[in-house]
Design goal:
Blueprint: E1 24-29, H1 33-48, E2 52-53, E3 62-67, H2 72-91, E4 96-101, H3 102-106, H4 108-114, E5 120-122, H5 130-139, E6 144-146, E7 172-176, E8 178-179, H6 190-194, E9 198-199, H7 202-214, E10 219-223, H8 241-248, E11 256-260, H9 269-277, E12 284-286, H10 294-300, H11 306-319, E13 324-331, H12 338-351, E14 355-360, H13 377-400, E15 406-414, E16 421-426, E17 431-435, E18 444-452, E19 456-461
Parallel strand pairs: 1-2, 1-3, 3-4, 4-5, 5-6, 7-10, 10-11, 12-13, 13-14, 17-19
Antiparallel strand pairs: 8-9, 15-16, 15-18, 16-17, 18-19
Amino acid sequence: MPFAQPVPLSSSPPAKPAGPHGRTYFVQTWGCQMNEDDSDQIASGLRALGMSPANAAIRADVILLNTCSVRKKPEDKAFSFLGVLAELKSRKPDLVVGVCGCMAQLRVDEIHQRAPHVDFVIGTGDVSAVPALVEQTLQERRFRRRLDLPERKGATVDDVPIRLAPAHGKLKAYVPIQYGCDKFCTFCIVPTTRGRERSRSTDEVVEEVRKLAELGTKEVTLLGQTVNSYGKNLPEGRVPFSQLLRRLNEVPGLVRIRYTSPYPRDFKPDLIQTIAECPKVMEHCHLPVQAGHDDLLARMRRVYTVQGFLEIVANLRQTVPGIALTTDIIVGFPGETDEEFQATLELVRKVRFDGAFTFIYAPRPGTPAAEMEQLPYALKHRRLQELSRLQSAITCEINAGYVGKTLEVLVEGPSPKEPRMLQGYSRGFKMVHFPGSPDRAGRLAQVRITDSHLWGFSGELL
């Protein structure tokens, strides 16, 4: 949710009642799809109190920051925003300010010290508690924190966040099926900020998707830190991710199923077969490899080998012809040698990913990799540029091969940049722009590709 341009600070807001009813809220979100879904849940809870969304932070009575700690940049943005809100709160003393999410889980004391105008901090364990914290703050002004996460012990766990039932549908929706992570990669702070891995009940997930479909949702994206390890630690016993996909494939009205992000070690043959056999499961997989050398993967504590990753890719492409593969790659990890970096480039040439999110390694305090000897930034930057050039060339070559082909597109509506053009994604998660009437939004369309670009395609409606 972008931070809208504020109106002048001198504007006087209308008087509000003592309780939450009739007040307005604004949620600023940084981070991943899980954070976006958390923000949607927070907003639904506040609407249930009788509050309504403000179109700008300056006009809100309650401002919530839903934060991310995967990288330093979103943390810096959050603290900068809090600095702006300090001045705003000095002019609007009744303003409620809360900080939620991963940074809240990790840096509560620093937030309280640097931003004493914050009324409460709540971590990732139970965003459903935000409305209650807002009500308590309106009744009594004192700093509150809520940071509980499930203990890392026991064979089963049912301590998952409470979710509000969908009240309205939208074309595409996120549906978390799993929270937390047990992988403990040496570069990643998520196991600390999100807690132990725990899965939602299969019946509960299916029911939520069924309700969304009844409300008009056509595509769902299943969310989890390692989404294909879903089903472990459930009180009713293990339920494979493939079984969940097969059940969702039968939901009436739903036309597309996506998921992010799977973990290579847990990508089993039954899942690959399910992708091939379930028409609603899209032929796209975002499979993070992170690096292309076994020694580097071992230092990252990624529990698979390059050869094992290549075997998964080969099996996917053999069983699901035409599947689009994307990935994540980190460059400049501590101790990365030129030989290891060249191995990563060679993996990219061999696999020929449709696209890749490429990152310079940045140490996260509290992770093992942050204590390792770091590489010079200039070297990391040069390696990122070389990797990006290689992947961009491969992406352009792959996309050029689609010219003249026809793709199924779920039409999202007019392009924000070119309102005369419609836009939507193909089954392989390629963005397509084409001329057409806005009334086609929300429907599937067959589009012949006429031109290709690094970012996707242009086409014509059939």
